[in-house]
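Worked example 2:
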Amino acid sequence: MRFLPTRTQANDASDLGPDRADLAEVIELRTRLPRQVAPQKPVRGPGSELPTDDATSVGVGAPVSGETSAGVEASMSAETSTTAESSAAADDAVRLLARRARSSGELRRELLALGHDPSEVETVILDCESSLYLDDLGLARVLAESLRQRKRASRSQIRSKLRERLLPVGVIEEALGELDDEEEHELLRAAANDRARKMSGLDRQTAERRLLGFLARRGWSGERAVRVAREALDSTAARGTVRFR
């Protein structure tokens, strides 16, 4: 391939020889290509402590002094320690909950007794609640139903047992509110009648006082308990199963 001189060398094709007049001009394109800019080395100002190697080998955010490196290392160490402590508290929580169902209050008490940090304990409890490993209301309902069916317990007795399990007050009252009022009254009547049949030989006043004391220990008191106790004593006396002096 033959090249023509640039226009600065020949401004008109007529200036060329007869054997070169029909050749196309080659345009200079080198200046139109994008130029690659070589990476600049950082300017080292006064007091700079960059290593002697090329600055491009230093990663973004990499420490450039011994003091900064020590700070990062201390921060990472603290974060690792916190994570390990949280993991230990979580492991103990899982171990405790695997043995039996616990309330949030019981789990809190036992984790603190194991020496875990209070803030970490609260975090673990929130995690367990969000994962449904802890369910205070569900536990309160199960306990209340069990005490009612197996022990024929009154609301007052159930409330006392739920408090022993360190359940929140609001949860306890919600579970008690779901108990049937008619069933509660029938339990009171059945307990009074059963006890009244065992009071033969007592005078009426003594029998009534003892029956009210028995019902109070079972969680029933007040005007309703007095009314039911008298009805039970009257009923047993009318049937002739008990004779009062």
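Confidence is low (pLDDT under 50) at residues 7-16, 23-70, 72-83. The radius of gyration is 45 Å.
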